[in-house]
Sequence to fold (860 residues):
Amino acid sequence: MIFIKALKKILKFLISCIRYVLTNSLKFFIGCLLSGLFIGVAGYAYYSKDLPDVASLKDVRLQIPLQVLSKEGELIAIFGERRRTPLKYDEIPPIVVNAVIATEDSRFHEHFGIDPIGIVRAMWVGFKQKGFSQGGSTITQQVAKNVFLTPEKSIARKVREIILAIRMEKELSKDEIITLYLNMINFGSRAYGVAAAAYTFFGKTPDQLTIDEAALLAGLPNAPSAFNPIAHPDRALTRRNWVLGRMLDQSYITQEQYDEAITKPLNVSYHAPKVEFSAPYVAEMARQVMYNKFGENAYTDGYKVYTTISKVNQVAATEAVQKHIIDYDMRHGYRGAEKILWKNNQSPWNAQKIQQTLEKYICYSGMCPAVVIKATDKEAIAVLQDNSNIVISFQGMKWARPFISDTQQGAFPKKVSDTLKAGQLIRVKKIGNNWELAQLPAVNGALISLDSDNGAIKAIVGGYNFNLSKFNRATQALRQLGSNIKPFIYTATLEQGLTMATLLNDAPIVRTTGSEVWRPKNSPPSYAGPLRLRIGLGMSKNVMMVRALRAVGIDYAATYLERFGFPKENISHNESLALGSASFTPLQVARAYSVIVNGGYLITPYLIEKIEDDNGKNIIYQHQPLIACHNCNDDVVTSGTTSVSLDNVEDVTSELDNEEPEQANLKSDDNLILPDMNNNETIDIKPKFAPHTLNSGIAFIMKDGLRSTVFGGSNWQGTAWRVKALGRKDVGGKTGTTNASKDVWFSGFGANIVTTVWMGFDDHSRELGRAIRAEAGAVTANPVWVDYMKIALKDVPTIQDVRPKNVVTVKVDQKTGLLPQSGSQIMSEYFIKGTEPTKYATREIGTKVTDAEGNTSELF
Fold:
């Protein structure tokens, strides 16, 4: 009984204890719950107050590189750290989507942005076994982190990531989220997004990927560098096979597909973006324009820049310039090995040391480094960067006369060992199936080709090789013009009443100023007495040019040159101007010749045709050139107070400040024209005409005069006779050679294409000299022009110029340029109405002489 009572007391006590504990525990639990809820609400409010709106992800702008394209849309260059081609969801194959979900977030379709089960499982797996972690972040969290947050590792950043992920799941569909992920994630080797990765590693589009390839890509985002299949193929293979296992476990592939895929090799290689053709000077000009306008965003906002360049013209220009630079360089001899690694009396280097040296050199325009390891009379053996051996026969190096100076070369070699020795680091180039000795040229050149009607640049080459020198000689090199300036000064004389039939004396000139004596000379130094101006232009007679300049005055002629767009600060005011002492860029020269060719209109060169945004649907800039008017009856000429100089390619950065195009185009600037891209106004398609700076009749006559330099006359040959090889009548041009041949030029036209070629040394003091012949515009620059124009004019119809109303045709005496008399040799000549001759030629009557036998003859 006592025991029972004691037991009841004990039970009663225990029940009281339990009630106490339960009552206070509940209070404790409720307290903890309320505190946790308060902390959670406060934390959510704190960490979410500055978070971006996830709805913006519907229009998120991924980092897409800048693309520079030809006018036909062919890729010239890509600029930007990240290579990316965004895809829509239906453009991504299911096998890629499934592979990524199996790898990164197997419960992607079940969770609400975060996956507590996945987090617990990842922690358990990481604790239980070594190997690949399944990761705790969902795909949604990874998108939130990549788009909105920094990569820092902190609790605060993780909380924000979770909040954003939950919000994203409410705003976006699962398809939209996985599409964002597959377009933005880093796969390594600068490939961002699955499209870029598929091309970078396999050279394929995503829809061409096989199961094993999709699995390889799916495994890369976890650690792009560590699993890079090119740098670490063994790790990549292990990772790929793990992904395939995950795909099998989750029934994305069958056992049969798994068994087949896991046996396949990686079969990867690096694929650079497919550039259709090389135009590095063009690409750099476009890049500078875009950077000046958009800053660093130019490389990330996916702009597509369509240039005025065509592949056919650009390739032809590059090949022509490079070919003739090499031809010049070979004419002037071999300057020797780039480096001597060991001599005959020294021990040869081992293969490893040779390769370590070769790795420091790169190829330029097909000229690659090689080390001679053996040389005999008949051939030399050299090793390349890939450790392969090549043979250089005597045929491949017989051109290599020793270079002594620009005007002197040694004898041609008689055997290979005369030139090549073991231990020399040289350059070689493969021609067909054979290897030949080469050398990087010391001389350089440039070519610029324009549409004379609107200023569109058709081709531009700024030097032999962009990687050797990024200096763009076509737009930046100020070089003395030589005889290339003569058409412009002769045009000034036509303005003042001289004609193409005017006689000027081709006789030596001597001017003495104090102790200084100036003797301008013809090249070659021959003189023919009084000649018509047309012959003086066609044969490039220097002394006649000086007399023409004197006829109109130096200041008048110097000011007149501004009508052609030449900057006045570059124009010299002395008689040497007649011989081309002024310095201009090839682009300025081509622009000036365009004025003569198009009927007197100062067009403005431009490179960028249009710019599209990242999706290619919106044109944010469409260029509207100022054009030459071929149907205008108004011959009012704009000159004098209006500056028409332009240092470089068209630049209308002022248009960004909403200035009128006509005003902006006449401003001098070093950059490219880039009108306001921020307005949404309708483009005015009404044509706008370039300033009319030269009388159309004078332009017509001078253009015809430039044809005479090609076709000559009945008893004389023009300096540009090589142009006749084109087989066209609508061509013309002018050679140019400066003192001591430091600069050689050829500028000319065919149809509406104007092209200027320059060659010379970057060192202004160095002369082009002579080798087989004296280097001059006619023999050094003109062949470059001809080779390019053969291609550029291939499908361009011949143009027949329409004679302006103020131009008349008159028959004249060939010798005097006056109206013909009986017995005169007659030719037709163009004149501005009112300047045609009114006097008749006088028949020369010689003195009659009687010899000892009574025979008479007439002396002339």
In short: The radius of gyration is 39 Å. The chain has 22 helices and 32 strands.
